[in-house]
Amino acid sequence: ADPVKVAAIYTVPVEQQWVSRIDKALKAAQERGEITYTFSENVANTDYERVMREYAEQGMDLVVGEAFAVERAARKVAAEYPDTAFLMGSSFGPAQPNFAVFDNWIHEPSYLSGMIAGATTKSNVIGMVGGYAIPEVNRLMNAFMEGATSVNPDVKFLVTFINSWYDPPKAKEAAFAMIDKGADILYAERFGVSDAAKEKGILAIGNVIDTASDYPGTILSSALWHMEPTIDKAIGLVASDTFEPADFGPYSFMSYGGGSFVVDESLAPADAVSAAKAKEQEILDGLFRVNVNDSEPKSTM
Amino acid sequence: MTEILDILISANFWAAALRIATPLIFGVIGALVCERAGVLNLGIEGIFTAGAMAGWMAVWLGAGLWGGVLVAAMAGAFFGLIHAILTVPLGLSQHVSGIGVTLFATSLSYFIYRTALPDVSSPPRIEAFKPLDIPGLSDLPFLGPALFQQTPLTFLALLLVAVTAYVLYRTPLGLAIQAVGDNPAAVESQGLSVYAIRIGTVVAGSAIMALGGAFLTMSAFDAFFFGMVNGRGWICIALTVFASWRPGKALIGALLFGAFDAFQVRLQTEVGSFIPGQVFLMMPYLLSIAALIVVARRADYPRALLVPYFRGQR
Amino acid sequence: MIRFEPRGPSSVSRMLGISIAAAVAALVLAAIPMAFAGLSVFEAYSLMAKGAFGSLFAFTEMLTRATPLILTGLAAAVAFRAKLWNIGAEGQLYAGALAAVAVGTGVISAPPYLLIPMVIVAGALAGGLVMLGPTLLKTRLGVDEVVTTLLLNFIILLFVQMMLEGPMKDPMGMGWPQSEPILDEAALPKLMDRMRIHWGLVIALVSSLGVYFLLKRTVWGFEIRAVGENAAAARHAGIPVTATFIRVGLLSGALAGLAGVGEVAGLKGYLTADLSPGFGYSGIVVAMLAGLSPAGVVLAALFIASIFVGADSMSRATGVSNYLADLIVAMALLCVLVSGLFLRFKIRFVGSQANPEAAE
Amino acid sequence: MAGPAQDAGVVLRLDGITKRFGALTANGDVSLDLKQGEILALLGENGAGKTTLMNILFGHYVADEGRVMVSPDGSGLSELEPGSPHAALQAGIGMVHQHFTLAENLSALDNILLGTERLAALSSSRAPARRKLEELMARSGLTVSLDARISQLSVGEKQRVEILKALYRDARVLVLDEPTAVLTPQESDTLFATLKKLADDGLGIIFISHKLAEVLASSHRVAVLRGGRKVADLPTAECDRRKLAELMVGHAIVETMRSPGTPGAPLFVLNKASAGHGRDALHAVDLTLKSGEILGIAGVSGNGQTTLARVISGLEPLTQGSMTLEGTVIGHASARTMIDNGLARIPEDRHHDGIVGAMSVSENLAIEAIRKPENQRLGLLRFSAMRERARNLIKAYDIRCQSEDSPARLLSGGNIQKIVLARTLETVPKVVLAAQPSRGLDVGATSDVHKRLLAARDRGAGVILISEDLDELMRLSDRIAVIHRGHLSEAEPSETLDRGSLGLRMAGHNAEDAA
Ligand SMILES: Nc1ncnc2c1ncn2[C@@H]1O[C@H](COP(=O)(O)OP(=O)(O)OP(=O)(O)O)[C@@H](O)[C@H]1O
Ligand SMILES: Nc1ncnc2c1ncn2[C@@H]1O[C@H](COP(=O)(O)OP(=O)(O)OP(=O)(O)O)[C@@H](O)[C@H]1O
Ligand SMILES: [Mg+2]
Ligand SMILES: [Mg+2]
């Protein structure tokens, strides 16, 4: 069969952690010869609808993107191009006839990395630096905090949002400020935070992407997101003409391999690692559900 | 209250203020130099980006850190030259030319970066400047951590303030720059070329600005990101007015802004649970306006700022 | 050595010729990065033209993108005419959008013929009021407005984010920082079915006519021009300089606010903090390209919008990085800027040996 | 070509200079020689092309035809590179421009040093320069405080800095474009004494002036330009006032003489009025202007005249005292209320405060009355009425311009002044405030301004004439008061005053000393 024609529309450059996961999965599929892949990055909100239409008009089979700030327009365009499949990052549900949704549901591994952090911190202060307080970020931070307090009720959190996706120098400064306040573990939602941790010789928690090799000895644990299950599923459905608007969110869950938890066992206490692993198994077995909480996390000091 | 005091007396806070201020110092000195010669350079935001990208890429390609600094300065000089040609001999609107240069430098940097590195999911890193350990000074109590654990570019920025002040006030070239920003006819009637001085100054000023960008990718961080300049250039334009076009005051203004910013991230973790985060982020801007109101009446504009000079025209 | 000699008003054919030359120069320049990216230049240009004008969809998209540019361009043009350097149209645009959302999302219920004007007025008022601050600081305390308006852009955007995460957050938005949707009765109607083009364009065109009329034919316009050209002489002649600045500030801010109204009430339907990709800053470019003339603003906005939309679409059709679009816009801008010179001046290249005897 | 004999002592030769600006020929085939030690006066109406000619000589403009020859070291004439001030300076030409070319943000010393040192030099060698300048100042009598910022200097001091700039570079030829336009009589006298001394030292000097008295008193030779062409070049000894005036304008000039006025009731009164601060402040000034009189205010500029004019114009509030117009106290004045109350104002700096250069002549003629019904209806401008009125005024006041639609910026100084006169006097004002109304104007334009002021007086208006030109004051004023350091003396009938005692009082000596 011909390769599936896939176009992706990103509102940020592909370096952005979130988007880079989608890009990676699509590029892998392209490598395998299953799809042809093209994308537009850094698309302004106001241009999003036009770009969607242009791709649809070009006869794309599948359009992948993020509908978050353009929810209504995206759904309207999709409805007008029923022959194209749309797989959009969204906090809302799928819509007939062709609008499927996904999201980064890696709150489970985030919880687990929280358990590791809570058990490892000596100062009982954990700093968290985020870009913007949007649900996709809040959810993971909240799960992380819950995981940490579940093993260490005394742990306190410092939370800062820097109001930018890509200002690593600024994220780094925010992280330094937290280190000054006594944080000995930093939750690295943004580029720059792990650098501060590394410079000051403390630990960091990775998020979405695996940066352990860039910061040896610094990344204590990470909650990783893998878009491959989601993308591969969608491509398969489109290729076999059986695409249905569905919620692809679960493909980001650990049980589908869409989320994973890694820990540097040389940095974490052994009992914390085993506790986390045990919890991981419970999650995979469906015995434990991590709460989903999208509200903005606040400092607790 | 005591928390606030704690912040202000911590050496780390002042070290952060100086770090945050460093790109601004380069930017404001560069902008100030251009404006002293009568040319507003709104290309600054793009020149920052170009400096950040070019300097980083040079290092990444193996030019070495100081080689990267040089390349960044050259990139700044290149865009400065475009702005200078458009605004000085051609006398075009400094506002549009500046914004045009910002658009041009930014989009060219992005385009080159993306064309050169189409397939990076995680931006490549370089080995960035490390904080200098100056034996003796770095170990001083308070001052050591506050002042002497910075990267070489921070010291370069401080040095540049002194050099700029010296050149501006003590050398024939500086006098000519000051004069050309006040009354170009005075310069021409003394046999000097208004165009040469203005173009040269804008090129030099833009090269300095670009170092502010280079600091971001080669000192404050070790990779290049789209949008990472994040309005810092515009802040420098504001700081120039605040500084009344004086290098010393420019340093103070940049440090003040750096301190506001370092202060707000610290305050955010203190009382962030009651007050929306944006309030803190607004603080540096609001305080800059407040500071400007205090100094406004004394602002001493270069009289020929924004005014193109044509020989033999009424 | 280059010498410029001012020339009188240019003929239409000359202006046309120069515009075409500028466009050609821009296209030649833009061919460099295109070739660099491995594109066939001619194909790229035909795709560009298609992207901006090739279909009804493309054309209306281009007009839709030009709509806010016309308004922010007018905002800059009016203010710059009085030498009030308003660099804050971006912030005023957001203020207008915020006000439109505040009025138009259900706080007031009224039929469209009442609600739409209320939304428009609220947006204009909010933009105007935002500009009032810097204007008063300038006239009362001598604070430089370039700086205050520039810094206000950051402050207002943060304020909008604060409102969107706080009191004005859409409870149905799944936690996303966005406003509630504008009611149907408050939305500016679309001009065409299935297309995004909306009544904001009409507002923009009418505003440009209005500004033209104001500057050209009214006492206030006369006073604005006089203050802008020579504030000292205007004051000596009994023109209320302060009042004129305030009027201009309000008008300029209101026009930028209208741009925000159009974007939320006409285009998006609700407010997010990434509403504008820098329309306020582009407005300055539009205004200056237009030589601060209201009619020129419309043309300049169409020019910028068509280059962007065309180049953006071309980058997609050819699979080149879409950062190319911004690059082409920047190059076109610089070319047009330079071409303006040929309208204002005769340019003579004087050899270094200007001495006629030297040749003998 | 001129033989060597004729070249003897010639330090500068302009040879067939032609310069066109579009259709306008600013200089047509002008040739001129300047000898060593000679003071040449260059005369001509406003717009005759004097400044243009000097700008070509100095390299600011490039001539369309003709050439400039200089003899830098007295050895022989060689052609000067056109279009290069640098070359002109190298050849020993020093130029004092009609408008100061000084950087206000630098000290006098730095302005003089500008361009004399290598730009790449690592420091400015101020100390040796200061020594040389102190010697120069002692020799020439041109003293200034070298460390003061230019912005703090008076116009006279600025003028001296300009000349020092040239002398510091060892100029052999000194060109001064209307050097005395802004100087007081005393300053002018000192300047010419200095120039004489410099000429005796071997400098060739060209100066441009509209003041015939000083031309006759101080020059060796006179060249006259009319319409861009040289119409006369003759020894000063062969000239007199009338002849020069005639050469300039091409016909005889009748100088305006005042007939005694018939003063009426007090019209405008300042009572213990104080305003402003610093050098230019007013201190408890009493002034009474009657209708039908011209009240002259004599004084060296910078003694409070500017503040006085601003107060009367409604641009600056009184800090103490009161202002009364026709018996009504004017509390919170603005420019608008004063104009509406019948004040006509001729500002000192007509380019800066008088006209909006980018607007048309007709708009400038309407600007003060733009809100009057004759210019607008319901906020809409009445263009045809405005232009109609402009055409009438252009005719009545003989304003030379291409049309009522040309930008006012393009007009000459004299014609700009006529715009101001036309729009203010046309309203039949009760009070006319004329500040330095003939500064920089040629004889023809000056006599025109004087006629208009006298006509306003004869119509019953009260005129306040602020001037540094004692001839003008004596010729026009019914009474004269002297302003010094913000204090205004009692006005006395001009018949009882003479130039000498006025000059002394302007310098700060009180009436008894003067008498
Ligand atoms: N030449 C100028 N260029 C730019 N801005 C100027 C200029 N002159 C004045 N302004 C600004 O205009 C402001 C208003 O001046 P001012 O209050 O004196 O006007 P006014 O004529 O008294 O007005 P009103 O009659 O309405 O009170 C000044 O404070 C200054 O900021
Ligand atoms: N750069 C220029 N562009 C166009 N016209 C010019 C320019 N310079 C001078 N002119 C015109 O040339 C003519 C001569 O001007 P110039 O300044 O030489 O006169 P002037 O004799 O010095 O007069 P004044 O006594 O008023 O100083 C005037 O009509 C003037 O408007
Ligand atoms: Mg006022
Ligand atoms: Mg002249």
TrEMBL record, chain B:
Primary residence: membrane
One annotated GO molecular function: transmembrane transporter activity
TM segment ranges: 12-32, 39-59, 65-88, 95-113, 147-169, 195-217, 279-296
Membrane topology according to the record: Multi-pass membrane protein
An example Gene Ontology CC term for this record: plasma membrane
Pfam families in the cross-refs: BPD_transp_2
Alphabetical keyword list: Cell membrane, Membrane, Transmembrane, Transmembrane helix
Compartments, as annotated in UniProt: Cell membrane
InterPro entries the record matches: ABC_transp_permease
Matches recorded under CDD domains: TM_PBP1_transp_TpRbsC_like
Alphabetized PANTHER family for the sequence: ABC TRANSPORTER PERMEASE PROTEIN, SUGAR ABC TRANSPORTER INTEGRAL MEMBRANE PROTEIN-RELATED
Protein name: ABC-type uncharacterized transport system, permease component
Originating species: Roseibium aggregatum
TrEMBL record, chain C:
Localization per Swiss-Prot or TrEMBL: Cell membrane
Keywords for this protein: Cell membrane, Membrane, Transmembrane, Transmembrane helix
CDD domains hit by this protein: TM_PBP1_transp_TpRbsC_like
Listed name of the protein: ABC transporter permease
Keyword Transmembrane helix: yes
Membrane-spanning intervals of the chain: 20-42, 62-80, 92-108, 114-134, 146-164, 197-215, 284-311, 323-343
Top-level taxonomic group: Bacteria
UniProt cross-references to InterPro entries, sorted A to Z: ABC_transp_permease (IPR001851)
Membrane topology: Multi-pass membrane protein
UniProtKB/TrEMBL annotation, chain D:
Keyword Repeat: yes
ABC transporter domain residues: 12-252, 267-510
InterPro entries listed in its UniProt record: AAA+_ATPase, ABC_carbohydrate_import_ATPase, ABC_transporter-like_ATP-bd, ABC_transporter-like_CS, P-loop_NTPase
Ranges for region Disordered: 492-515
Molecular-function GO terms, alphabetical: ATP binding
Pfam families membership: ABC_tran
Keywords attached to this entry: ATP-binding, Nucleotide-binding, Repeat, Sugar transport, Transport
SMART domains attached to this UniProt entry: AAA
Superkingdom assignment: Bacteria
Family assignment from sequence similarity: Belongs to the ABC transporter superfamily.
Protein name: Sugar ABC transporter ATP-binding protein
Organism: Roseibium algicola
Lineage: Bacteria, Pseudomonadati, Pseudomonadota, Alphaproteobacteria, Hyphomicrobiales
